[in-house]
Every structure is written in C-alpha cells, then in structure tokens.
C-alpha cells in the first residue's frame, strides 16, 4: 500500500500530507486524520518528545488494511506545510479548523474515495468536530479528546502539579485568557506557558467547549479513549458521551494518551484502527439500507 505524498495549495502557502489507499479499485470510505496539540506532524511525531511515535502513521496503515482510505497532514507551519512569514502571534485555533476543512474537501473529490469522516486525536478531536460542517463530513471520531474547554483541563493540571506560589498566578492568567484578556505580567517561571506570542492562540482555543460542539453536530460520533490516559482521563470520554448520548463509546483498557497499549504503540493503534474501521463500515451499511 504505497503512500502518495501531496502538497495542497492554500491562501497561506501549502498543506503537505500523505494519502494512503487500500488495495483495489474502491471507492473506499475515507478519513482525514487530524493530529493533536503542539508542533505535531502527519505521523503523530513531535520534537517535544525524545523519540518518534508514528502513532498516526500506524493508525493510517491499520485503517488501510481494513478497507479505509486516509489522508493525514502536517499542521500549518510544521514539517512540509510551509507557511511563509508565519508567526506564533498571528496563529489562531480557527486557522487549524480551516486547514482541516480544506484537506477534507480535497479528499472528498478523489476518484477512489467515497464519503469522508474526520478523525481527530487529542486537540485534533475538537478540530474535527468544528470542521465537520464545512467539510460536509459523514461522521466524526474523537480519539482521546477532552470533554471540557482546554483552559479547564489546563487549570486541573496546573492545580494538581504546580506549587501554590506558581499555581495561583497561573490560574489567574487562565481566567484572564478565558475572558479574552491578554496577560501582561507573566512570572518568569510561567513564561513558556503564557508567553505573549501564544496568548492570542490560547484565547481563540479557550472559546470552544468540546461537549457543546459535539452536542450540536448533526452527524454520527464515535468516542475512543484509553482507560490508562494520564493526560486526558477517561472521564472526559464520559463527559462527551453525556453530551452526545447517541454516540458510540469505546474505552480501551490499558491504552494511554499516545495510543500505546501497555507500552506498545503498534498494539494500541491496531485496536483503535479496528474499532474505527468497523464503526465506519457499519455506518456505511446503515446509511445504504
């Protein structure tokens, strides 16, 4: 199953990605794979971690083996997605939503592809839900997606991990950003988290409540979450399910946030690919009936 490397022109530069089709003529159900937060590339790798994960690449391969085509891409300004003049200060969360919509619409026009669903991991789950309407998506799959605003999740993590003398100003900064107000005096110890150049992005990100967004979607939803996720615990999947009671919920025992099953990423992505493929193929059958 050779991959096709793509470069999609955009108003800001180019969006680079990899198209992976199953064996045969198709047309195939297809998914757009959307990576999580930070400088994460199409394969799920980031320079913030000491070694490559390739979790999204492995997920794409697992889906192709089960008859599901996929397109995964480098986020704007990451890897091959060249964005001349891009500055952190100018980036907004909605830009990432726009990019997902563009990629999904391109995928939907491919001659060997049928309906397209959006599959997002972590932060990408919210992007998928927000982009679904403009992309005319068949369905949305949330993998390890948060069940609350990013600011609420950050507040919980800060209060549970930082000493009180740092937690207090951090929580105060979060409250200001939630209200759309930049923070001028950031303590040196918190500068990396709340540097002025990233604050506009955080403000744009904090506006969106994932549970509320999912509740308003008019397409089927699948929720996949690891029971051993230390960053975004399985209670988040339960919160999303409460907002969308008709969604399919799958909690994977032993799987963490990186889709590693008891330390084994190939095993974790194998389980996730099987769950996503079976659900999408069953969805196609139901819609055709």
UniProtKB/TrEMBL annotation:
Statement: the UniProt record of this protein carries the keyword Zinc: no
Entry keyword set: Hydrolase
Gene3D superfamilies, sorted: alpha/beta hydrolase
InterPro entries documented for this protein: AB_hydrolase_Est10, AB_hydrolase_fold, Hydrolase_4
Gene Ontology MF terms: carboxylic ester hydrolase activity
Domain Serine aminopeptidase S33 as annotated: residue spans: 56-144
PANTHER family: ESTERASE ESTD
Name of the protein described by the UniProt record: Alpha/beta fold hydrolase
Origin species: Ramlibacter cellulosilyticus
């Amino acid at each position: 199953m050779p991959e096709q490397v793509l470069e999609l022109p955009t108003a800001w530069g180019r969006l680079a990605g990899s198209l992976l089709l199953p064996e045969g003529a198709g047309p195939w159900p297809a998914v757009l794979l959307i990576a999580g937060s930070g400088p994460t590339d199409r394969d799920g790798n980031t320079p913030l971690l000491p070694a490559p994960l390739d979790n999204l690449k492995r997920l794409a391969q697992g889906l192709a083996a089960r008859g599901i085509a996929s397109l995964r891409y480098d986020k704007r300004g990451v890897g091959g997605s060249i964005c001349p003049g891009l500055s952190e200060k100018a980036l907004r969360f909605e830009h990432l939503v726009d990019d997902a919509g563009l990629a999904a619409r391109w995928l939907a026009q491919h001659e060997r592809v049928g309906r397209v669903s959006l599959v997002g991991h972590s932060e990408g789950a919210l992007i998928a839900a927000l982009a679904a309407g403009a992309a005319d998506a068949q369905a949305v799959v949330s993998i390890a997606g948060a069940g609350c605003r990013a600011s609420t999740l950050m507040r919980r993590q800060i209060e549970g991990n930082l000493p009180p003398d740092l937690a207090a100003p951090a929580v105060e900064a979060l409250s200001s950003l939630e209200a759309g107000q930049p923070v001028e005096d950031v303590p040196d110890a918190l500068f990396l988290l709340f540097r002025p150049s990233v604050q506009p992005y955080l403000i744009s990100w904090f506006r969106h409540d994932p549970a509320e967004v999912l509740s308003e979607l008019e397409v089927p939803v699948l929720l996949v979450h690891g029971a051993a996720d230390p960053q975004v615990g399985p209670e988040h999947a339960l919160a999303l399910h409460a907002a969308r009671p008709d969604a399919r919920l799958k909690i994977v025992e032993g799987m963490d946030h990186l889709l590693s099953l008891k330390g084994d990423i190939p095993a974790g992505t194998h389980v996730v690919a099987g769950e996503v493929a079976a659900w999408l193929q069953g969805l196609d059958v139901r819609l055709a009936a």
